[in-house]
Amino acid sequence: MKFLFDDESFSFETLRAAGFTAYQGSDLGEILATARSIEDGDEPSWHRSWKATAERVAAIGEQALVAGHRVSAREALLRASNYYRTAEFYLRDAPATDPEVTVLSTASRRTFAAAVTLFDSPVEPVAIPYEDTALPGYLFLVDDSGAPRPTVIYTNGYDSTAEESYFVIAAAALRRGYNVLAFDGPGQGSVLREQKIVFRPDWEAVSTPVVDYAVARPEIDADRITLFGYSLGGYLVARAAAHDHRVAALILDDGVLDASVAFEGALPPEVRAWIDEGHDEPANAALAAATTESTQVRWALNNGLWAFGARSYADVIRRSRGYTLEGLTDKIVAPTLILDAENDQFFKGQPQLLAEKLVNAPATLVALGEAEGAGEHCHVGAFHRAHQVMFDWLDTALASA
Question: Which residues are marked as active site?
Answer without folding.
Answer: 231
